[in-house]
Design brief:
Elements lengths: L1 H11 L10 H6 L18 H4 L18 H8 L26 H11 L12 E2 L2 E2 L3 E11 L2 E9 L1 H4 L33 H6 L2
Antiparallel strand pairs: 1-2, 3-4
């Protein structure tokens, strides 16, 4: 109780003027991840942006052949990991960030490269009578190929994650930032967190 009273008195003694804070501007600012690397933003793309970043071997190796144990079982038996219907979290489909005029070339390129394939509409997984749709966007590699900025191709699988169990492994046993909530430091105390501590969270 003594410490609480001390903190209240300390706050009462502070003087200052709060400026208007622009949250939109704050979240438009690029951030850094736990390794100190810049977090890249999602970008619209065309085939010229993603083609240089796709390895020639992409789509050639069966996924199950490079997995083992639980990961291989997950890949070969995905249907077993779909949650019961009452546990589904149905999310709105994320954007596929391809300009309308670029669709033909992007689709043709993805199919020819082996990244995507063609399926009959009635074989697509349905949620509430509609196909389960996910998102697609590009992230810059800070490289250029001729006139095109080179992007990594990223698929946003948030809708799938809402209906399927994830591969957890030992991830649930790792520490996380939420475990820092019980910490309460007094004015004369200091918490030192190193980059190694943060990396160990992952």
């Amino acid at each position: 109780m003594v410490w609480l009273v001390k903190d209240v008195k300390r706050l009462q003694s502070l003087n200052g003027k709060l400026e208007r804070f622009d949250w939109d501007q704050f979240f438009n600012t690029r951030g850094i991840d736990y390794k100190g690397d810049e977090v890249k933003t999602a970008r619209e793309f065309c085939w010229g942006n993603i083609a240089p970043a796709l390895p020639k071997e992409i789509g050639r190796v069966p996924l199950a052949e490079v997995c083992s144990l639980g990961a291989r079982h997950y890949v070969e038996n995905l249907d077993l990991y779909i949650k019961p219907r009452e546990k589904w979290i149905v999310r709105r489909a994320p954007r596929v960030m391809v300009p309308e005029a670029e669709w033909p070339e992007v689709c043709t390129g993805l199919v020819r490269s082996g990244v995507c394939g063609l399926m009959p509409a009635d074989e697509l997984f349905q949620v509430d009578g509609r196909p389960l749709l996910n998102g697609l966007f590009g992230v810059t590699k800070d490289e250029w190929e001729g006139d095109f900025e080179v992007f990594r191709l990223i698929m946003n699988l948030t809708p799938l994650n809402g209906i399927a169990e994830p591969i957890k492994g030992d991830v649930d046993t790792l520490p996380m930032w939420s475990l820092m909530n019980p910490f309460f430091l007094q004015p004369e105390e200091t918490l030192l967190v190193s980059s190694e501590d943060v990396r160990c969270f992952f």
